[in-house]
């Protein structure tokens, strides 16, 4: 589908959001992703992005950390009215309507699917009965203002900010004593998600069906 670039803004530090107008009638579930393709003369490249905006907003917002890659530079150089091509939305990293306690573990910019899910549910007046563990490299935390507001407005929602580069199942379990009884969503750089997910399965008797993972390719750390 054809997207039209609208605007960009800094979320925190080097994390930037980009907003696109999408075709009328475009639908997706909060937590899904797109494959975004950019072109410039004889150059073309693509990148996967989980959609950060909520479906009710009827526009596609993606957020990323600027790394200096050609794709990121091209994305950051878009002007209002520029066109891009997106494939999707796709993915099953979405809210599960069960009574099982839910845990969301966000690693850096891996917060984007959770931002979409929580924002959509808040808009619909639905419960935000979730514990969010949000790991970041420093105090520059994307979407923090909204997360703090949701905590104030939804007493069933709990968020903890952990500003450190290293993550371990022991650290997660320290903050989540009921970890073994929860549905666990984890989102972030692919190698970190893979490692932590495997450790949770092997060391904490987490069952495969309790663990849902969203991988961000191209990042080695958060």
Short description:
The protein has 222 residues and is α/β, with parallel strands linked by helices.
3D structure, described in words:
This is FAD-dependent oxidoreductase. One of its GO terms (molecular function) is metal ion binding. Keywords: 2Fe-2S, FAD, Flavoprotein, Iron, Iron-sulfur, Metal-binding, Oxidoreductase. This protein has 222 residues and is of the alpha/beta class. The protein folds into 2 domains: 2-90, Translation factors (Elongation Factor Tu (Ef-tu), domain 3, Beta Barrel); 102-216, Rossmann fold (3-Layer(aba) Sandwich). The protein contains 5 helices and 11 strands, in the order βββββαββαβαβαβαβ. The two termini are 30 Å apart.
CATH-assigned homologous superfamily of the largest domain: Nucleotide-binding domain of ferredoxin-NADP reductase (FNR) module
Q: For the largest beta sheet, what order do the strands appear in spatially?
A: 4-3-6-1-2-5
Shape: globular
Q: Write the CATH architecture name of the largest domain.
A: 3-Layer(aba) Sandwich
Give the number of helices. 5
The biggest beta sheet reads: 6 strands, antiparallel
| Elements, N to C (H/E) | EEEEEHEEHEHEHEHE
Number of strands: 11
| Spans where pLDDT lies below 50 across 5 or more residues | none
Give the helix proportion (percent range): 10-25%
Cofactor: FAD
GO molecular function: 2 iron, 2 sulfur cluster binding; metal ion binding; oxidoreductase activity
InterPro entries: FAD-bd_FR_type (IPR017927), FNR_nucleotide-bd (IPR039261), MRET (IPR050415), OxRdtase_FAD/NAD-bd (IPR001433), Riboflavin_synthase-like_b-brl (IPR017938)
Keywords: 2Fe-2S, FAD, Flavoprotein, Iron, Iron-sulfur, Metal-binding, Oxidoreductase
